[in-house]
Amino acid sequence: MRDLKEEILQTSLDLFDLHGFHGVSVNQIVEASGTSKGGFYHHFQSKDELLFVIHDTFITYVFKEAQAANVHHSSPTQKIQAIIHSFVQVFDLYKPHISVFYQESTYLKPAYKAQIKQKRDEFKNMIFLVIKEGQESGEFRRELPVEITGMAVLGMVNWIYKWYKRDGAYTIDQIAEVFTDLTLHFLLPSSKSPASMEDLLHVPFFYDNK
Prior knowledge:
By secondary structure, this protein is an all-alpha fold. The chain has two domains: 44 residues, Homeodomain-like (Arc Repressor Mutant, subunit A), CATH 1.10.10; 154 residues, Tetracycline Repressor, domain 2. 71% of the residues lie in helices and 0% in strands. It is built from eleven helices and no strands. Helix 4 packs across helix 6, helix 5 packs antiparallel against helix 7 and helix 7 crosses helix 8. The longest helix is centred in the middle third of the chain and has 28 residues. It is elongated, with a radius of gyration of 20 Å. The C terminus is likely disordered. InterPro entries: Homeodomain-like_sf, HTH-type_Tx_Regulator, HTH_TetR, KstR2_TetR_C, Tet_transcr_reg_TetR-rel_C_sf.
């Protein structure tokens, strides 16, 4: 059974998805979640803080997973594999959070936007550091600019929220495997590539995931 904070959060996600951030009042959230205003304000100072928590939930998860990968794995190749896998997984685990955030993030107050930017930058910099570590150790191609390569990974994975469907033809694990394979193909020297280009061409195309 969900606790009250989680109940308010999940109810808000449903309401924001249907009506938009400004189309939902605290009173509506309170009524739909079966609580009181006192119960709401015990856990959230405002709707703005609630929207911040929606984002913070999934960015904190993916950042902690990246930190764990950095600690538990010794090689940059293993680290980037684990980071990408958990990063892709977040679009399934927190799909409603991510959808609401991208639709409604423009309404966040500057103080909350600053906190979100800080966490996103920390995650981005961790990816940059793993790529740089791989280049310095000789595991990754040294000619690739770290910033461009890191942003390519971030952009590729972030776009999942636009097309991924839980009832689609491919599971989130299958998608994670393909994204990891693609990343290793452009990071690793050709002699260390995990599969041949011919094999890669036989991977099913899943963009129209219906």
